[in-house]
Amino acid sequence: MRKYWCVFKIALADRFVYRADFFIATFLRFTPIITTIALWSAVYAGGADRRIGNLTYGEMVSYYLVVMIARAFGSMPGLASGLAKDIREGELRRFIIQPVNYVIYHLHLRMAHKSVYFVMATVPYALVFWWCRAYLPGWPAADQWAPVLLTLVLSFFLGFLINIAVGLLSFWFLEVTSFLFIFMVSQYFLSGHQFPLTMLPDGLREAVTCLPFAYETFYPVMVVLGKCSTAEAWRIVGVQALWIAVLAAVVSFGWKRGLRRYAAFGG
Amino acid sequence: MSRYLRIGARFARNGLVRELSFRTNFVVTVLSEVMWLGMMLIFVEIIFANTKNVRGWDNHQYLFLLGTHFVISSIFETFFFGNLQRLSELIRTGGLDFVLLKPASPQFLLSFERVDYSSCANALLGVSLCVYAAQKLGVHIGALNVALFVLLVLSGVATLYALMFIFSTSSVWFIRQTSAAHFWFYLTSCAKYPAEIYQPLARGVLWFALTFVIPVLIVANLPANAMVRQGQFHPWLVGYALFAAAVLVILSSVIFRWALRWYRSASS
Predict the structure, then answer these.
(1) Do A38 and B193 touch (CB under 8 A)?
(2) Which of B21, B22, B50, B172 should we substitute to test contact with A (largest number of A Cβ atoms within 10 Å)?
(3) Minimal CB count within 10 Å: which of A234, A235, A246, A266?
(4) Which residues in chain A have their CB less than 8 angstroms from residue B50's CB?
(5) Shortest CB distance from B200 goes to which of A41, A43, A178?
(6) Do A32 and B186 touch (CB under 8 A)?
(7) What is d(CA A199, CA A139) in angstroms, rounded to the nearest whole number?
């Protein structure tokens, strides 16, 4: 366990090196939310119907704001493509001969990245949320705090495992960049990042919510916003845990099968 | 000049060879773009199921805007996206040395080296969407308005190119930068919507900034307005679009040469 603690500490230090980059990235991350608010205020202004996808304008804005929090936990930029690259270019051999598990190593890297991110992004997030406070529903009720925190933490693990599982495809296909793009696009829509899944027609919504993506963003956001009862919130947390177990099994199985095919290209 | 044409032709040929050696990649790229477009269309459907117009744009005008955006971003991705994404990386790893040593304009070499033909096919998707929307709107498609549309689309591509080139160049100052891919995502997620939606925000300051300072809003909006919302289009806007594109391209070249003074050729 101590070796992974080292990985964590090194990754922590590494993150603090590129501060200018960090601030640019955080600033840019807020730009889509401005566009989203602008677009939805236009849509709500144009129609007489004041509830869309069962959400009022204020709820719609708060949905997108909380999506940013959920994504801060669940998004794993470059994880799947990094794994694909390590497999394709033979970098994986380092991990085969070292007593370090690639997946657990990367889990610690990501935990370190997220820790730094949460520390440094608190101020810009607090500012934006304070500025938009009129739209927000207020703090979760006392009995909702546990599922709210759990669902966010689980969305981190879910996001991590989904990305690793997709990256593993690289064991079987040499060039997966386009597959990864398809995956990113699907994730963007099916997780509820682009719009709340409640806006989909019933049949389609039921199909989409059977996939793990909805548990990465849409459901955690609903829990945070207090749009579901405490029992319902716990059910969501349970399904998340179930998906994590399934994906962990898939990753562990896929990893073993993949390593048998692995040829360690490169020199 | 003819030397640059020859180099450009060689780049184009190399790209074709690369493309033909990864044929499945071509199919999958096109497929993924079809999917992206499909999802965007669902989103537009959802919006217009709830409202008749978005700040003066009706359903088909909005589709035309989306098609225009698709055409512009496909052209950009065909010629520049891969190259500009590589630029930050070359600066960080010191690989830029090899470009600077060559006896030709480094900006030219950096901007045109790779041509990605698979993105090119997506322009056809955008054009089809535009033609469909224009027909629904009963817009006459003639030589004159198509020529104007093409001119504005090209100036939009040049504008995006210059903005992205400046962004990638700034890696010289901010080492290991947020990838160009992210910046591209943010730029396009801003530019593909009607410019009018930004007007009520912050007393129009944002709209002003995105039209005149970092002019991403004119990129797809102007050609779409010229074609399907002629009431909202004034001839002087053509002049503005060309002027903005020219200024930005010149600025990108000035900034690039200035940035090279800070380039440290860091490598292991």
Answers:
(1) yes
(2) B50
(3) A266
(4) 43, 47, 49, 52
(5) A41
(6) yes
(7) 25
- Taking contacts as CB-CB distances below 8 angstroms, the residues of chain B near A54 are none
DSSP-H helix ranges across chain B: 2-21, 23-50, 59-76, 82-93, 96-100, 106-112, 117-137, 143-169, 180-191, 205-208, 217-228, 236-259
Burial of A163 (0-12, 13-18, 19+ CB in 10 A): buried
Q: Tokens 């039209």 sit at which residue? A: B211
CA distance A32 to chain B (A): 6
Counting residues of chain B whose pLDDT is more than 70, the rounded percentage is: 97
Q: How far apart are CA A206 and CA A201, in angstroms?
A: 9
What six digits make up the tokens of A93? 């051999």
> Comparing C-alpha atoms, which of B193, B72, B80 is closest to residue B127?
B72
Check if the beta carbon of residue A40 is closer than 8 Å to that of residue B195: no
Domain boundaries, chain B: 2-262
Per-residue pLDDT reduced to its tens digit, A173-187: 877 777 888 888 888
Residue with tokens 């296909």: A173
Check B47 against A43: CB less than 8 A apart. yes
For B127, other C-beta atoms within 10 Å of its C-beta total: 15
Angle between helices A102-131 and A57-74 (to 10 degrees): 150
ipTM of predicted complex:
0.83
Chosen for mutation from A34, A36, A43 (greatest number of chain B CBs closer than 10 Å) is A43
B23 compared with A237, residue with greater pLDDT: A237
